[in-house]
Amino acid sequence: SNAISLKGLAKTYGNGKVALHGIDLDVPRGSLFGLLGPNGAGKSTLINILAGMVNKSAGQATVWGFDIDAHPRNAKASIGIVPQEILFDAFFTPFETLELQAGLFGVPRAKRRTMELLRAVRLDDKAHVYSRTLSGGMKRRLMVAKAMVHNPPVLILDEPTAGVDIELRQQLWAYVKTLHADGVTVILTTHYLEEAEALCDRIAIVDQGRIVANEATPVLLARA
Ligand code: ADP
Ligand code: ADP
């Protein structure tokens, strides 16, 4: 089965704005999948529905085979999400941030898992400093570690490199590739074609709440 499967997924916000017009989309397991589209296309809405942060208006969504309505806990446990904004307490240390997150997900041996993750994102030497003193790149890496704390099979990154400089973008790309090589299904949203092109093996284009293309990257590029 697929990592993510959407059938007729629709969202109309309270103010009448239709953000998603009944979209169908399958993300194969093991892929590095790009959701490409301009601002306002509906990418964040789609991710927020999968994350359980926005209620869909209609349709069906499954994550790793779990329907988000019938099995919300299993669906949620199957994804890690790196949001656009940096979200953690500036007066917590990276160690505390990850240990707390591990606790929320009931991860066994939380301290051990925390140290393992800090090593993986090369923050072990910053484990016990206030997070507010970290550089932008370190904060982003901490966000990825936080999303991976419960070892989900699917990692979703919302605009991972929006507003970051070239050096940091290269670092983040390399890190995403490492996670993918380790077997994680990765989905990222972006409005940069070059980012989707450089990283993704498959790209779906979202425009005004609709999927207007969904192809293997070389096929999509040959057409453009
Ligand atoms: P719903 O309960 O239907 O999911 P929300 O509670 O998420 O809707 O949104 C409440 C209101 O917040 C919306 O009706 C809208 O006026 C406003 N709002 C929040 N974010 C946005 C945005 N990105 N664009 C336009 N309006 C927004
Ligand atoms: P993207 O992530 O591709 O930029 P979004 O999913 O954030 O797109 O937004 C899709 C559309 O829905 C936009 O027109 C946006 O203004 C609108 N929107 C997003 N959140 C809300 C909200 N809470 N209330 C009303 N409209 C919203």
From TrEMBL:
The keyword Transport applies. Residues 4-224 form the ABC transporter domain. It comes from the Bacteria. One of its GO terms (molecular function) is ATP binding. The keyword Transcription does not apply. Transmembrane segments: none annotated. Keywords: ATP-binding, Nucleotide-binding, Transport. This is ABC transporter ATP-binding protein. It comes from Sandaracinobacteroides saxicola. The lineage of its organism: Bacteria, Pseudomonadati, Pseudomonadota, Alphaproteobacteria, Sphingomonadales.
